[in-house]
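We close this part of the discussion by returning to an individual protein. Part of our work consisted of pairing the sequence of a single chain with a tokenised description of its backbone. What the numbers capture is local backbone geometry rather than side-chain detail. The amino acid sequence and the backbone structure tokens for this protein are reproduced below.
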Amino acid sequence: MTQKDAVFNAITQVFASNSISFTPNATNVAGLLTRELRSQINARLVTDFSSGSVELSDDAKSKLENVLELRAYISGLVSNWVRKDPRLNGGNIVATTSSSTSSVSKVLRNDAQLQALRKLHAAQVDSSKQAEIQGHIEKRISELTK
């Protein structure tokens, strides 16, 4: 399996196991990822990479034999594909420079309203209320990224 597909599958599985719904090509998952979710996604990917089910060049395999190096690589990999994969970024085709992407990322991370919505979403157990909050999260992300 490609690394891109491995990241997509891990995110899909972790979201499903946490009762978080998203629509590929329509929902930007960056606004949904909490530290806890990222940790779960990274753990799944470490397992997938370690088992050999994810494509990795021989050179990369030798560089990533250490679990700490593999974890650091996977963390960056997840961030990269969340930003670039249209299935995960709300269907956006990414053709930006790293500095503008970094600026948008910083805005999304530092927005108090978005942080509060994410916390509320994570704490909510009622799926209909989660869906409503998700709508507000997506709307806020859209407002911030225009």
Q: What stands out?
A: Residues 19 and 126 are 10 Å apart (CA to CA).
